[in-house]
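Q: What residues go here?
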């Protein structure tokens, strides 16, 4: 890879500095100091003898001054080289970070293309190569695709359970890496809800508080995300239609068990539709089903017809088309 242009002058400067050392080193001799052979060609030693003349004393003094300045010059030179080395390291490190970021962006683009194309298995194969990543954007997408594989009709029950717990782990890591990611909050809540199916009614009800908290946080972080709003509607719908025996268990287990109404659910479903019209076939279906619960058959039929006519891009869309058609027949 070509080095950044900012690095080239630094490298040229380092080469120039290194070349300037060589003549000095040859002048100083192998010991790297001036006292012996560097200037005089033979060893100079201190021997007792007659006093030097003023001229001789001046020459020795001059030699001593030169000798004293050499360590200072050498220290200054090494300091400059160390600084240049640090600057070079910084430039290379920054280049590596930019390269890594560009690679993650490229992976995310591929992942989003596969998701929009409905290539669930190819997407899972792509993202599992990076399951050790510490990038929150990549991790929540990995949680989503793991859950999507679990939802496929051909996935065995054993595989589905393993994938549900795997998805939760990815979502949890995504949230740990970036608590400001609305998508990490959203998928963490979804995955906790899925795990509740394997851990009993007590855990499921206890998790409901956590799920609601993370959906609300996702909406707070991104009020324009229709999916988070839709999921909050599902939360309300689920507790509005909770069977009587589960309500009784909830009251025994919790002083203030979670509760909601169909009216509250309807408010979220409509809000999601206002943010992004026709974004999701299930939102259309649930609008119809909620109006049925409220005995408004006219509006129920309106939304169920829209759900039935929604273009089927995924297996879930096909299932929703079938359910909408069945409900319309009942009307």
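A:
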């Amino acid at each position: 890879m070509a080095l950044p242009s900012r690095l080239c002058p630094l490298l040229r400067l380092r080469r120039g500095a290194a070349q300037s050392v060589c003549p000095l080193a040859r002048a100083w001799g192998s010991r790297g100091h001036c006292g012996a052979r560097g200037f005089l060609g033979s060893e100079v030693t201190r021997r007792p003898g007659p006093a030097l003349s003023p001229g001789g004393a001046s020459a020795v003094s001059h030699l001593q001054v030169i000798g004293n300045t050499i360590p200072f010059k050498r220290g200054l030179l090494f300091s400059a080289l160390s600084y240049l080395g640090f600057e070079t390291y910084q430039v290379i490190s920054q280049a590596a970070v930019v390269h890594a970021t560009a690679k993650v962006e490229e992976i995310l683009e591929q992942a989003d293309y596969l998701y929009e194309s409905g290539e669930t298995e190819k997407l899972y194969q792509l993202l599992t190569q990076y399951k050790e990543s510490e990038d929150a954007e990549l991790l929540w997408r990995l949680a989503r695709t793991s859950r999507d594989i679990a939802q496929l009709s051909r996935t065995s029950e054993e595989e589905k359970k393993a994938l549900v717990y795997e998805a939760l782990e990815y979502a949890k890591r995504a949230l740990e890496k970036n608590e400001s990611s609305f998508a990490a909050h959203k998928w963490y809540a979804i995955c906790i809800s899925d795990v509740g199916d394997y851990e009993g009614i007590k855990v499921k009800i206890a998790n409901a508080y956590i799920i609601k908290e993370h959906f609300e946080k996702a909406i707070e972080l991104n009020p324009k995300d229709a999916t988070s709003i839709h999921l909050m509607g599902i939360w309300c719908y689920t507790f509005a239609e909770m069977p009587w025996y589960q309500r009784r268990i909830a009251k025994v287990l919790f002083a203030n068990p979670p509760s909601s109404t169909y009216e509250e659910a309807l408010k979220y479903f409509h809000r999601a539709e206002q943010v992004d019209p026709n974004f999701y076939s299930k939102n259309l279906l649930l609008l119809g089903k909620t109006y049925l619960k409220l005995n408004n058959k006219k509006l129920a039929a309106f939304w169920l017809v829209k759900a039935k006519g929604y273009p089927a891009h995924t297996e879930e869309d096909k299932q929703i088309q079938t359910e909408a058609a069945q409900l319309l027949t009942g009307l």
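A: Context that may help when evaluating the design: Residues 54-116 form the longest helix (63 residues). DSSP finds 14 helices and no strands in the chain.
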